[in-house]
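Supplementary notes (optional reading)

For those who missed the lab, this is the record we used. Protein: Protease inhibitor. Length: 155 residues.
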Amino acid sequence: MLFNKVSRLGLLAGVMFLAGCVAEGGPDYRPPVRPGPSQPQMCPMIYAPVCGERGHSRKTFGNACQARADGYRIVGNGQCSSRPGQGSGPGAGWGGERPGRSPHQGNRPGRPSAGACTREYMPVCARRGNDRQTFSNRCEAERAGYRITGGGQCR
């Protein structure tokens, strides 16, 4: 008998709970689309600055991968320019080289250039006058004003 009263009370409580529930919309109702979790973009920690553009916004990134991961289009190598008069027209607004061109291309041997090189190890043999030296990569050699004579260590 006690069991009957408890089960009736439980049934009554369940019916009252369900009566309070409300269904949204009719047969054509579609719940709003929720964006799924975005996949994290893994980018190397190589410093090769680029200027990226998204809409009318330009921003300097540490490398092209980081710019693309944030949804930016690469418009130039190097930092974006903030100088007046350089922010209009295609490709303007950045103070570096064109995409695909090394920042050290065109440097004359014997003239050290300013700039940062990556820490990648890809040894090259280079020469300046009668001095031959092995550098950890092409950028380091060109930055020191040497002319590349071959890949690998000097022999």
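If you only remember one thing from this example: The chain has a mean pLDDT of 74.
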